[in-house]
Amino acid sequence: MAKNQAIKKEKNFEEMRIDKWLKSVRIFKKREDAADACNLGRVRVNGQIAKAGRNIKISDVIIVKTGKIYRELAVLKIPIRGLSASDAKTYYDEVVPEISEDTKMLMKMQNEAEKATKRKFKGRPTKKERRDWSKFHGI
Q: In a 10 Å sphere around its CB, with 0-12 CB exposed, 13-18 middle and 19+ buried, how is residue 72 labelled?
């Protein structure tokens, strides 16, 4: 009976739950985090929003939003168990979109503008900052 169970286990690795796969290939540190991302609609499989229990198979394309970053991953293999960091990268192919020079320039300008307008200190404004703010707003 043990042989039959081993054979069944090997056959089942043609598909895997999306949350287990994301944890196994180290996209998320915990399966709970992967499941939360799925249930919040931050994971798409082949263009459709995927819940944590959805099965994926080889050649599926997964789009994962982590923070402000979207990652597009093509499934190459289904792991049997958790993997080391170097081995995990062989189980998926990350599709990196090409960014035009104009877009790169706009992103750089946006980052510089955010840095210029960001306050250096948190909390209560200083007397000078308060006066500058009043002068700017005409108060």
A: middle
Say how far apart CA 12 and CA 22 lie, in whole Å.
Answer: 17
CATH number for the domain that contains residue 30? 3.10.290.10
Instruction: Specify the pLDDT at position 10.
Output: 47
Is this structure's pTM higher than 0.85?
Answer: no
- Residues across the chain: 139
3-state DSSP assignment of residue 123? coil
Q: How far apart are the first and last CA of the chain?
A: 83
Looking at the 3D structure of the chain, how many domains does it have? 2
Give residue 6's domain range.
2-97
- Looking at residue 78, the DSSP 8-state letter turns out to be -
* Residue 5, pLDDT above cutoff 70: no
Residue-wise pLDDT for 45-58, tens only, equals 999 999 999 999 99
Closest CA to 38 of 20, 12, 14, 25: 20
